[in-house]
Write a structure and sequence with these properties.
Shape: globular
Strand order of the largest sheet: 4-3-5-6
Radius of gyration: 18 Å
Order of helices and strands: HEEHEHHHEHEHHHEHHHHHH
Number of helices: 15
Largest sheet: 4 strands, parallel
Structural class: alpha/beta
Bound molecules: adenosine-3'-5'-diphosphate
């Protein structure tokens, strides 16, 4: 289906009309954060679900019960999603684990007052694009991506779900000085998951011994997480997400864009990237 049928523009970015309803966006805007909330923030396809496995395991000290028994969208709910209001987050004990795909400047007033902890994950945008292209083929609530080059232009113009990757990443990087925000990349997690888990645990002030870190990292390896029915989206009806077209936990690697983009697509991507990121000082894992 086309954008106009599936999406609504909210504060300049596309959201899914059926999932990000006016009521759920109002709920997001009025959400009362607590200082000890922990929020996973990502541009879609950057490793959100992976973090929804890692962070609960860190907070449980490695006890697998939360990730074995609670489906990801209830375990670390998206604040902007329609069903979240019914989860009674107000009643949840601290620290609450939350997720959002919104840009920094779109966060509600209470976020800036209370400054809860944020872990922001970046991923090479060419891999984000590749993952997104396949995801759009499987998910009926997203637009039909059409031919790859056409979708690539939309992606680079920010005419996709949750807007421009460039605006998203820049918005959260500009908040980099904030002590309550930790930045980590998908590539770092692939390179050394144990080290990444240890760093996140430290940021979250959750002391973990070596054994617990090893256990969490092993549990969160792609091949192991893929078996977890509470995390691999196997409970999502096929009408919404047809995983025979593309599995949700699809490849879980760095650099798959090399198998996906034509040389012309990659060259165009690089040129746009260079221009849009020229004022960004940060060194990324893929630079
Ligand atoms: P691919 O499509 O490249 O495989 P999100 O959760 O933000 O939508 O991101 C989905 C991407 O994260 C998918 O990328 C998915 O396979 C990858 N992913 C999920 N769990 C992972 C894990 N344990 N290890 C590595 N990658 C993972």
């Amino acid at each position: 289906m086309m954008e106009e049928e599936l999406y609504t523009v909210y504060k300049g970015v596309y959201v899914v009309s059926s999932m990000h309803t006016p009521e759920s966006l109002k709920y997001f805007e009025e959400f009362a954060f607590r200082p000890d909330d922990i929020i996973i923030v990502t541009y879609p396809k950057s490793g959100t679900h992976w973090m929804q496995e890692i962070v609960p395991l860190i907070m449980s000290g490695g006890d697998p019960a939360p990730v074995d028994t609670i489906v990801n969208w209830k375990r670390v709910p998206w604040l902007e999603l329609q069903q979240t209001a019914s989860l009674e987050l107000e009643q949840r004990p601290s620290p609450r684990l939350l997720t959002t795909h919104f840009q920094y400047n779109m966060m509600p007033p209470s976020f800036f007052e209370v400054k809860p902890k944020v872990i922001y994950v970046t991923r090479n945008p060419k891999d984000v694009f590749t993952s997104s292209f396949h995801h759009h083929e499987a998910a009926s609530f997203l637009v039909d991506p059409g031919p790859q080059t056409q979708f690539l232009h939309k992606f680079l113009d920010g005419k996709v779900l949750f807007g421009s990757w460039f605006d998203h990443v820049k918005s959260w990087l500009n908040a980099a000085d904030e002590e309550h925000i930790m930045h980590i990349s998908y590539e770092q997690m692939i390179m050394d998951l144990k080290d990444s888990v240890g760093n996140m645990a430290q940021f979250l002030q959750k002391p973990l011994d070596h054994e617990a870190i090893e256990k969490i990292a092993d549990r969160c390896l792609f091949k192991n997480m893929k078996k977890n029915n509470m995390s691999n989206l196997s409970t999502v009806p096929r009408e919404l997400m047809d995983q025979t077209k593309s599995e949700f936990l699809r490849k879980g690697i760095v650099g798959d864009w090399k198998n996906q983009l034509t040389p012309a697509d990659a060259a165009y991507f690089d040129a746009v990237y260079k221009d849009k990121m020229k004022d960004v000082k940060h060194t990324f894992a893929w630079d």
